[in-house]
Design a protein that fits this description.
about 100 residues; mainly alpha; about 0% strand
Length: about 100
């Protein structure tokens, strides 16, 4: 965990996020907390990570998401040398999808 972001205010934000029950509540909360551009940037990075894990090329990712190669490279660095947060979420989403199919 990055000690630079571990603050009481960030703890409060994460506690608030963890109270959300569904996508509609997420939309309401994040539209209030973030600007449209901030939210679109976050979602773009997530899509870039998802596509990198699907072994898509930088060119395919840039064309589909509009992300710059610098953004794609930064996300790729997080996937390879970060805290495994993306992979944790991808694994949980995969498990949830598997349960739905049972």
């Amino acid at each position: 965990m990055n000690k630079k972001i571990k603050t009481e205010a960030v703890d409060h934000l994460f506690e608030a996020i963890l109270t959300l029950d569904n996508a509609e509540e997420c939309y309401s909360f994040f539209e209030d907390v973030c600007t449209v551009n901030e939210l679109l940037s976050l979602s773009q990075r997530y899509e870039v990570a998802r596509m990198l894990r699907q072994k898509k090329t930088y060119l395919e990712i840039a064309e589909k998401t509009g992300a710059s190669t610098a953004t794609i490279s930064r996300v790729n660095r997080s996937l390879n040398y970060g805290n495994d947060g993306y992979d944790m979420v991808f694994a949980r989403l995969g498990q949830a999808k598997d349960k739905e199919q049972e």
